[in-house]
Amino acid sequence: MPSGKTHVCLAGFAGGGTAACFALDEVPVDIAGEVLGGALAGMVGGKLPDILEPALNPLHRSFFHSVIFGAIETAAGLALLTHWQSICREKAREHKRAAGREEDPILKFLHQLAAFAWHMLAGALPGFVAGTHVRLQATGGAASTIVTAILAGELVDD
User: Fold this and answer.
1) Tens digit of each residue's pLDDT (9 = 90 or more) over 43-78
2) Angle between helices 28-52 and 4-22 (to 10 degrees)
3) Beta-carbon neighbour count of residue 77 at 10 Å?
4) What DSSP state is assigned to residue 93?
């Protein structure tokens, strides 16, 4: 089985890559925010089952390490994804507009920072789902980004 460091590293790459797939229509700085948010959330998703069911716990590799949990997590994440990202991206646009109207450089910077943070949150959900520990156990992380994007219809031509 992969070590905790391996889970965190692969989950970060899978989360950031998946977030990038879902942010292709954004401008580069916004993509960067979503990739960063996806990578960080992916690292959490890659480690969370071991936090909830530590190796010393008799329930280790029980529910939170199961394929059923992974399927529930993926289905819930994908069901919420479009709505989640539209809310986060709209909040980011509001802060960008406010930054454009702001004359005070400190407040302008804070609005720009808030917009970046909202883009990080937009990338967090796809990153968390892609970085899930169960998927990493099953695929070694290599297929995580592609599988999640295909399930969401992002890589399928209509």
Assistant:
1) 888 777 777 776 675 655 665 666 666 677 767 777
2) 140
3) 21
4) H
Contacts of 117 by beta carbon, 8 Å cutoff, 6+ apart: 33
The residue among 88, 106, 46, 96 whose CA lies nearest residue 70 is 46
Give per-residue pLDDT as tens, 113-134.
999 999 999 999 888 887 765 5
Q: Which of 71, 89, 11 lies closest to 3, judged by CA?
A: 11
Burial class (CB in 10 A: 0-12, 13-18, 19+), 105: exposed
**Residues 149, 150, 151, CA angle at the centre, nearest 5°?**
90
| Residue whose pair of structure tokens reads 């394929």 in the numeric block | 67
d(CA 131, CA 14): 6
Residue 84 has pLDDT above 50, yes or no: yes
What are the sequence ranges of the domains in the chain? 4-81+121-151
